[in-house]
Amino acid sequence: MSDDALDRIAHRLIRERLQPELVRTPSLSALVAERCSKHRMDSPVQYAELVERSDEEVGWLRAQIAVPETWLFRYPDSFEYLRRWVVEHRHRWSEQRPLRILSIACASGAEPLSAMIASASALVECGLDPSMAVRTVQADALDPNAAAIEAATSGQLPRMALRAELPAWAQRWVTMHNGMPRIDPQVRERCTFECGSAPMCLLQRPAAIYDVVYCRNLAIYLNEAGRREIGVQITRLLAAHGIVLLGHADRPALLGLDAELVSLQAAPASAFMFRRRHDTHAEPRPPAPSSRGGDIAAAPNGGGSQATFLGAQRAADEGRLDEARTAATALHAGGAREPALLHLLGTLALAAGDDPAAEQWLRQVVYAEPNHDEALLTMAVLAERRGDMEGGRRFRQRASLGAGGES
Ligand SMILES: C[S@@+](CC[C@H](N)C(=O)[O-])C[C@H]1O[C@@H](n2cnc3c(N)ncnc32)[C@H](O)[C@@H]1O
Predict the structure, then answer these.
(1) Which residue's alpha carbon is at the smallest distance from atom 3 of ligand 1?
(2) Residue 204: is its pLDDT beyond 90?
(3) How many CB atoms lie within 10 A of CB 229?
């Protein structure tokens, strides 16, 4: 096969910012032979000319190199931890100023849709009704693969889009039809999909608008210039206290962001989550700060394992709510009255749907610690749910005046 024609095709793909090593492999000859036969062309030179003038043909070649493979809740730890992060920061978002997610290289959309669902489910846990929770989140996603974007827009994801059991918190928004996952239309409507490439598609967007930026499993396909240009856009677009999620083979250094981003300390390494180096606000607060109780141990009760506050908090964070409730109740029965423990009991009652019990616990929290902004905001939501809008307004006002919040 003519080396000259292959070189022209490879150059065209490198101009698309693809990695030179990937476009110069022997498989390029095989791809060109396949396309010559499809287009009934006698020579690769003719095909090189087609590639030079046809974006569609470039798109086909790119899809063979950067395969649009993705699935729902890929890297499950990252979604579990995203939920925890959203709970921690929930007072930053509202219907007017939603939590904004960007997914660069979304393929058929499983990534932004998973992020939307994880975030909305966390807001439900904070007391929003499901419909309002979805309206408090918004995602923008892009990928140059037209077929993948079409699948994403339809909300009918391919069979392989679900590869593990659906998390319980996602079941409200994902249903199975003939073995294929279908996304709730309300979630899909909050997600815009654009057919286009980074960094070009990002240049016109306003700065500092995204709270959560995904750029997973793209950098490995791109040349250095492409990766760095995207890195520049990620830092430009990331809002204050925002986070960046990468893939298992990505590192901030690949995007030229090693000086800019550091791992989120509190997240497991398998979540591949990062924040700005100097932005400690992006980290969730430690579960038991000393001012709110330190670690508390229940008095030994004749042989059973000793419950600790940190153990109860960890169980709650990991979704083992019954275990968390048993441990927290044992601590309380043993005489512990620290605000952190009372707050955890309130949160657990809320998760169980027991609003009156949650209010009782939270009232004790704000009695002991009048500026506890998280408790005040949850009290506000609970009061509003009862129809007490004035009470809700007062709690919100107290929270915004308090010392502890970021509001
Ligand atoms: C392996 S998929 C990653 C999907 C998803 N981010 C994930 O991790 O599950 C790689 C995607 O990168 C897309 N892609 C290739 N070049 C791109 C570019 N310059 N800008 C945005 N996406 C690109 C491909 O079309 C493909 O869908």
Answers:
(1) 217
(2) yes
(3) 19
Distance CA 227, CA 179 (A): 37
- In short, whether 223's Cβ falls inside 6 Å of ligand 1 is no
- Residue 144 Cα: closest atom of ligand 1: 25
CATH number for region 290-401: 1.25.40.10
Q: Which residues contact 90 (CB under 8 A, 6 or more apart)?
A: 122, 123, 126, 377
Q: Determine if ligand 1 sits within 6 Å of the CB of residue 143.
A: yes
Write out the DSSP string of 39-85.
TT-S-HHHHHHHHHH-HHHHHHHHHHHS-----TTSSHHHHHHHHHH
Residue nearest to atom 2 of ligand 1 (CA): 68
Q: Is the CB of 292 under 6 A from ligand 1?
A: no
Torsion of CA 357, 361, 366, 369, to 10 degrees: -170
Share of the chain above pLDDT 90, in %: 57
Using alpha carbons, select from 211, 253, 207 the residue that is nearest to residue 231.
Answer: 253
- Residue 84 predicted with pLDDT over 60: yes
Q: Where are the domains of the chain?
A: 3-65, 76-282, 290-401
* Nearest alpha-carbon partner for 116 in 129, 105, 102: 102
Q: pTM of the full predicted structure?
A: 0.71
- Three-state DSSP at 146 gives helix
Ligand 1 centre distance from Cα of residue 68 (Å) = 6
Q: In this structure, are strands 238-245 and 261-263 parallel, antiparallel, or unpaired?
A: unpaired
Residue 346 C-alpha from the chain's centroid: 26
Q: Is the CB of 104 under 6 A from ligand 1?
A: yes
Nearest alpha carbon, ligand 1 atom 13: 105
Class of domain 76-282: alpha beta
In this predicted model, what pLDDT tens digit does every residue of 269-287 receive, in sequence order?
999 999 999 887 777 665 4
Tell me the CA–centroid distance for residue 154 and ligand 1, in Å: 18
